[in-house]
Amino acid sequence: MTRQVFAKIFATSLCLGAVVSAFSQTPAEPFRNPDLPMEQRITDLLSHMTLDEKIACLGTKTAVPRLGVKSFGSSEGIHGVVQRGAYDGPPIETTQFPQPPGLGETWDPELVKQAAGVEGYEARYITQTAKYNRQILMLWGPQSDLARDPRWGRTEEVYGEDPFFNGTMATAFIHGLQGDDPKYWLSAALLKHFLANSNEDFRTSSSSDFDQRLFWEYYSVPFRMGFQDGGAKAVMASYNAWNGTPMVVNPILRSILQKQWGVDVLSSDGGAVKLLVDPRHAFPDQKSAVVASLKAGINQFLDTYQDETRAAVKEGLISEAEIDDLLRPKFRVTIRLGLLDPDDIVPYSKIKDSPEPWNTEKHKAISEKVALESVVLLKNEKALLPLKRESLKSIAVIGPLADSVHWDWYGGFPPYAVTPLQGITHQAGYGIKINYAASELHQTAIDAAKASDVAIVVVGNDPTCGPDMAKDWHDTIDGGGTLACTVASDGREGRDRESITLEQEQLVKQVYAVNPKTIVVLVSSFPYAINWSQAHVPAILHITHASQDEGTAIAKVLFGDYNPGGHLTATWPKSLDQLPPKMDYNIRHGDTYMYFKGEPLYPFGFGLSYTTFKYSNLKLNSPQLAKDGSVTVSVDVTNTGDHAGDEVVQMYVKHMASKVERPSRELKAFQRVAVEPGQTRTVQLSVKASSLAYWDEKDSAFKIESEPVSVMLGSASNDVKLSTTLQVR
Strands, DSSP E only, in 465-612? Predict the structure, then answer.
């Protein structure tokens, strides 16, 4: 949603969000009795509410001030708690992690869970501390869509292109946000954006068209895993349509999300209901669009809806009983968050009025660890890295991103931010001279590179797509929701990328011409076709934007104080010619590593290390797999180099005799494992027969075939070390 829409909604609802009890409450009220069944409590609460109070709770504020019911509110939170809207005070600082592709590049679900736990804790703190007192217990994240096409402007918001991988990371993130208490949630996760939302241009009128098999086997997988495995109960419908039906009124919101997956909160996106009138022309006016959305199950509006709902009730278009049915699941969230219960029995109620958590060593340590694990080593010719301090007298640090940390549309305000220049200067120590140049202007970059033993060029994209992002929301003749990006390879919400060529690679060429010991640090939200750099530059690192510890992570990796173990989570093509048309949502035509045609620049799952690993002793605990069973795959991983390091063991499967078209390979399990030099560690991975099923469109059900399946283990989708055959019975 746009910043303006969010701010308007927030400002209009402030009066409803104030929790000031007009009457003293007594423990005798059933809705306040924690010993009663949840549904009984909600029935009682609804019986006390007026129609206007009920309608008000269909927005983002769920307070009922007259009854002393608190709101769970909302805030963005895909890689750090974000404060938006009207607020009388200085910006609230919160821990800022790498963008979701960077979180994904850790290949470490447990660490992603810890990062989300930091977010949930900080949201609780802000909500319950008198100094801030902003109700933000429903965090809008994780972003569970798939990076189907690198031209998508919001690729920066999702973990990667593989459905199982994204679902695993989304599930971990949800567990972190919602906490480990068996009864109460730390905060509530809201998954975005259902479904198949991977184009920005024309998104307010476009339709993502594909068959039922791709729905069940690809696009919906991360959401299903997030709800069924993660326990999330809220989702936001996307702007686009699926096969012609806009998602905000799509029948699957009720038939699948609500009835099959147990989703409680079905939210529209900002202004999405209005878009049903114009430009979609699906309904004649806002009232009709609101009624259709209510009938479809929408119970959280980020749109104009209150007057229209009142009029609809008066005209008999919707009943108060139907509104009760829509509110009931929202109040389940209220109860899970402990907002109707005494503080002394809610474990998370104590998170308040302490030192700001974002300044604690615990949160700083998790932030730095995430940043370190997210760094991907893409090239390291002749072991140029890690840099050896004792052999260096000078280092050039060059580039437009060298002395800045860039924040994106969904980033907040960090307590600190370390730039690459700051990090490198600190890690280098006092004996090494740092020659800094922001650009090639006046030959400063060339002079710095010439005068230095090593040149580090920090380049990448602008995640805001221009200097004035907040004011760039305009309808344009080409269908983009924002003004065109200044640089063609940039993208953002509302605007897709026109190119995947890195314009700043020209600076890399100039530096390399005068200093062959050039290292490229690519700080980017997206894949780039850096073909020239891969062919010529001896060392390349990748990290995403928006980590408060960006510079620290880069510098520690460069100097070998940390051995990089991150791996890519999307296919990096050599050119756009290798991709099908952007609006072709049938991924079988060449999207993702599963169907990619040709040789990519970097494959899905790719990442190097300062050490080497050997795979051996691949075993299955059973050569056969029953259709209701699972099998454990084990492999020994030995560190055969001189550096301690992390290996990401990836398990792919290939169907050898399927009756339907299957991907060339599919990720089914993975594990990041730390191995000391000379050490061997046994990694065990599990695969269930149910994960090998395909969707039978005729019977509308998953089917498991009796067939041989190739089980492949390696360090990337194209780097299989060992394989064996598993017979599914």
Answer: 518-523, 539-543
Query: Measured between alpha carbons, how far is 708 from 544 in angstroms, rounded to an integer?
Result: 39
Collapsing DSSP to helix, strand or coil, 617 comes out as strand
Euclidean distance between CA atoms 726 and 169, whole angstroms: 27
Strand-pair partners of 139:
75, 189
Query: How many Cβ atoms are within 10 Å of 27's Cβ, its own excluded?
Result: 9
- Distance, C-alpha 185 to centroid of its chain: 20
598, with CB counted inside 10 A (0-12, 13-18, 19+), is exposed
pLDDT recorded at residue 87:
62
Residues in the chain: 729
Q: How far is CA 25 from CA 39, 44, 59, 278, 551, in A?
A: 20, 14, 25, 46, 52
Phi, psi of 394 (to 5 degrees): -155, 150
**Cis status of the peptide bond prior to 600, with omega within 30 of 0:** no
- For the stretch 144-192, pLDDT in tens is 999 999 999 999 999 999 999 999 999 999 999 999 999 999 999 999 9
Structure tokens given for 672 = 């990041």
User: How do residues 135-146 score in pLDDT, each as one tens digit?
Assistant: 999 999 999 999
Query: What region, left, alpha or beta, does residue 69 occupy, with left being phi > 0 and alpha being psi -120 to 50 degrees?
Result: beta
Q: What's the rounded Cα separation, in Å, for the pair 699 and 35?
A: 44
pLDDT digits 0-9 by tens, 718-729? 999 999 999 999
Three-point CA angle 1, 499, 507, nearest 5°? 115
The span from the CA of 367 to the CA of 376, in Å, is: 17
HSE of 669 in the Cβ direction (CA atoms, 13 Å)?
Answer: 20
Strand order in the sheet with 188-194: 75-76, 138-143, 188-194, 234-237, 265-267
**What is the distance of C-alpha 11 from the center of its chain?**
27
- DSSP tag of 9: H
Q: Is the pTM of this model over 0.90?
A: yes
- How far is residue 222's CA from residue 217's CA, in Å, rounded to a whole number? 10
Q: CA 717 to CA 165: how far, in whole Å? A: 13
Please spell the DSSP secondary structure of 639-672, one letter per residue.
E-SSS-EEEEEEEEEEESS-SS---S-EEEEEEE
R_g (Cα) of the chain, nearest Å: 26
**Can you tell me the mean pLDDT for 527-556?**
98
Contact (Cβ atoms closer than 8 angstroms) between residue 320 and residue 273: no
Give the sheet arrangement for strand 624-625, strand by strand: 624-625, 719-728, 707-716, 645-655, 666-675
List the structure tokens of 78. 């895909």
DSSP 191: E
| Neighbouring-strand partners of residue 31 | none
Q: Where are the alpha helices (DSSP H) in 337-460?
A: 361-374, 420-428, 444-450
d(CA 107, CA 165): 9
Q: Residues 38, 39, 40, 42: is their CA dihedral positive or negative?
A: positive
Alpha-carbon span 376 to 103, nearest angstrom: 12
Beta strand pairing status for 265-267 and 234-237?
A: parallel
- What lies within 8 Å, CB to CB, of 252 at 6+ separation is 195, 242
Of the candidates 237, 232, 236, 228, which has an alpha carbon nearest to the alpha carbon of residue 260?
228
pLDDT tens, residue by residue, 95-123: 999 999 999 999 999 999 999 999 999 99
Contacts of 247-255 with CB under 8 Å at 24 or more apart are: 247/194, 247/195, 248/272, 248/273, 248/276, 248/293, 248/296, 248/298, 249/276, 249/282, 249/292, 249/293, 249/295, 249/296, 249/298, 250/296, 251/296, 252/195, 253/194, 253/296, 253/297, 253/298, 254/296, 254/297
Strand 707-716 relative to strand 645-655: parallel, antiparallel, unpaired?
antiparallel
Pairing, β 680-688 against β 613-620: unpaired
At 412, which amino acid appears? G
Helix axes 109-128, 361-374, angle to 10 degrees: 140
